[in-house]
Amino acid sequence: MFDKVVIVGVGLIGGSFALGLKAAGAVREIVGLERSSEALARARQLGIVDAVSTDPQEALHGADLVLLAAPVAQTAGILASLLPWLEPHTIVTDAGSTKSDVVASARAVLQERIHQFVPGHPIAGRESNGPDAAIPDLYRGKKAVLTPLPENPPASVDKVAAAWRACGAIIHTLTPGEHDKVFAAVSHLPHLLAYALVDDIANKPHADLLFQYAASGFRDFTRIAGSSPEMWRDISLANRDALLGELDAYLAQLNGLRARLADADAAGLEAVYGNAQRARRAWIEAIETFETPPSPDQESGK
Amino acid sequence: MFDKVVIVGVGLIGGSFALGLKAAGAVREIVGLERSSEALARARQLGIVDAVSTDPQEALHGADLVLLAAPVAQTAGILASLLPWLEPHTIVTDAGSTKSDVVASARAVLQERIHQFVPGHPIAGRESNGPDAAIPDLYRGKKAVLTPLPENPPASVDKVAAAWRACGAIIHTLTPGEHDKVFAAVSHLPHLLAYALVDDIANKPHADLLFQYAASGFRDFTRIAGSSPEMWRDISLANRDALLGELDAYLAQLNGLRARLADADAAGLEAVYGNAQRARRAWIEAIETFETPPSPDQESGK
Fold it and tell me: Are A222 and B125 an interchain contact pair (Cβ–Cβ within 8 Å)?
């Protein structure tokens, strides 16, 4: 399906994309491109990529697909380094957690060649990072959200979708703005709230005593506060407007709940808790009913 | 060690205590006491209790230990029903998630016999409830917090501690007030925050779209919002003062973080996120180093 795929940033996300394409037999050659040759050597050693390069000119020669899998704040710099060597038939996509800012960077750098950039965001991750964490099944049964631009030829969008499908992902389409509002609510805000709680507790004079009694509920609630602070600083700033909107709505909700608690409004508290419990149960049931990952056998025939 | 133990409320918590005592060979007879004979019949069928009763007089005859494992809001009513039949040598303890309110209820009901009540709170749970969820190892390697009263004879506190140790638990001691402040921070506030987030999202006009893109991080963050709304309404109200204090501290923290985000203060955001990540990592390392559950073999010799 693909002759030559270039992965910029061969960590968990880029490496798992490479392994997924290889497992599906969907690519002839994968080249890893990074500034650091150390990460590349490890990716080569693990068999994630067939060849490595620190030179964009060499890597991009004859490439039909390029995946950017580096922190979103680096998008403009990376695209600027690729642009002189970007061949007319090459499609560039990305795996960034925010889309409006990535699109703005891509437009600023690529200008009249923006049609070659199809923005995307696979909804998958693991607790560990780097090439050693990469696995071929990371995207199996998971969503890959594409946020195509008006300038993208439909055939280019289809090619990017086909690559993610080869990795086992289910394709969803949103506009960049819709994407950012949705993920501000269900991902970026929860990260901010979890970081805020752990920092709040860690700064109390009796923090050691508190952590001593934190149990499994606290562990799950704060798991996302174990994520990279640099990455989430960048995501928070890249999606600042949508995140501020969601944070303000949540602060209003918390203030309302505080008033119910202060008034000892038992029915009012139970209404909020009960509505949340029912909504979460319905969501979990929907996930378990509709999103059972297809088995590798079912998927490999595609 | 115990001749006759009475469990009031033979669900996950009470049933697992019964199974743990039996597995350790620490009790001759366990009697389940409830108003509903249905739950009792199931507990008897599962072998959790040796006998069942809906009659406090019968159940309490000759009992050396009584565990209250019912919702905390029922403490006063249950103690009032037990008091006429409570023998002088019987020790009563409980498993409630809040302690100051439980102690206040116990003092009001038991009065000059308050010395017979040793308050406690085992820090363990599962996602499922009821007698069918009970397991003998629920408390193994987990903390059981006792909050003894000045009136308790040390020998009575030791007996309650010995029962929890027989179930594999590690005994900690706090005052009721300390207990409630600690759990307001590390348990009750996170529950309130998780309920608030899910309710907030569920009430948005595009809730279906949002839930569609919620992934594993959201699932873990909101797991505790799957807990019983009635139970958490009661806990929130029972520990209202401490919970309001923690909520206000958290609101101040969130407002500070909002200001950093609005100012695009990258260093300020990273400082909070980074401090949280480091504190959480240190906590997880401490858990994994110091709290590896003892194996059944090590424990059975006690």
Answer: no
